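Can't paste images in this forum, so I'm doing it all in text. The chain is below; anyone willing to post the predicted structure tokens underneath?
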Amino acid sequence: MSALVRVERLTVTYPVREGVARRRVRAVDGVDLELARGERLGLVGESGCGKSTLGRTIVGLTRPSAGGVLLDGVPVPPRRPPAMRRRIEMIYQDPGSSLDPWRTVAQTLAEPLRRLPADQIARRTRELLEMVGLGEEHSSVRPRELSGGHE
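Text version of the structure:
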């Protein structure tokens, strides 16, 4: 099976100024990884170790200093075309900064389904709620009204 996402010798450095001297800090250093279709990957590490920089580089939000990222064998360019932006995105851990606080759960779930007929959007939204252990009564609530242990 070919890799959906392949990261090859990825390095990201940032310029740092210390008085009049300049140097580069290496945030990501020669990372290689492959992610097959259907696989999940969790990045774990201490604060400041480069997890976010790696993620941002994989999705094309940060330019690598060396190495590269391929999506289905195609290099991820510095300016991702819209079709590629829809295929690979970051999901931020903090729901307060990743979910629109004014949209309901149903509106948020329906957004990526907007090209489907309305009845299919409603059906799929109900299926998605059920998959994560929420009922249809949760479709009209906003993110702030839910907690991690909500039932």
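DSSP finds five helices and four strands in the chain. The chain has a mean pLDDT of 85.
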